[in-house]
Amino acid sequence: MSTPDSALAGAQRLVQVNYRKYDGSLHWNLRMHRLGEDEHGTWLGLPAGGVMRKGNDPEVAIAEAHVLLFPRVAWWTAAFNAAPRSTRIYCDITTPPRWPSPDEVTMVDLDLDVLLKRDDPAPILVDEDEFAEHQVRYGYPADVVTAAEESAGWLMDAVAGARGPFGGAHEAWLSMVGGAA
C-alpha cells in the first residue's frame, strides 16, 4: 500500500469518477488525481478550482480542494473538503465502488448522505425523503435498502466518534492537492 508521501509520483494519473442513479443514468461525475491507497481504501484528489458535472450538464467549479475516499468493500464514499468550505466531510451512501479499470471508479448513489459541517461537532443525515421516493421510483430491492440504512447508521457513529478514516487520515492526502483541513 502506498502512503501519502510515496504516492506523490503517481498523483498525476487521472481517474474518471462516475456516480450513477439506480436506473444507470449518469449522476455526479468528475476526473480526479489518484493519490494512493492506505488501510481505508483508495484516495483521489482535486485541487481548488477543479470541476465536476451532474449528468451531462455544464461543469460546476469547485472552489476548495478536496479528496475522495473509496473504501474497498463498503456501501459509501467520503469527501473531505478543505477550508473554508462549510461541509468538512460529505459521505454519500452508495453501492460498493467498482473499478472497471484502474482509471475509472463507479458506484450507484443511494441518496442518503452523512455530513459534518465545519461549525457543528455532530454529523447529520440528509436526503431521507429522496431515499424514500427513489425506493418507489427505482424499485430498490430490500437488501439494498437495508445496506444503505446500515451504512448510514455506521457512518453517523464513525464520523461522530472520529473513528477509522474520519479520525484525521485525510489530512495528509488533502495536503497533496493544496488543501488544509
List the SSEs and their pairings.
Elements: E1 14-20, E2 26-38, E3 41-46, E4 50-54, E5 60-62, E6 66-70, E7 76-81, E8 87-94, E9 98-101, E10 104-117, E11 124-126, H1 128-137, H2 142-160, H3 170-175
Parallel strand pairs: 1-10
Antiparallel strand pairs: 1-2, 2-3, 2-4, 3-6, 4-5, 6-7, 7-8, 8-10, 9-10, 10-11
Could you list some keywords that capture this structure?
single chain; 181 residues; alpha+beta; seven-stranded mixed β-barrel; 3 helices; disordered N terminus
What does this structure look like?
This protein has helices spanning 128-137, 142-160, 170-175; strands spanning 14-20, 26-38, 41-46, 50-54, 60-62, 66-70, 76-81, 87-94, 98-101, 104-117, 124-126. The protein is of the alpha+beta class. 19% of the residues lie in helices and 41% in strands. A hairpin with a 6-residue loop joins strand 10 (104-117) and strand 11. It contains three helices and eleven strands, in the order E-E-E-E-E-E-E-E-E-E-E-H-H-H. A seven-stranded mixed barrel has the order 1-2-3-6-7-8-10. The two termini are 23 Å apart.
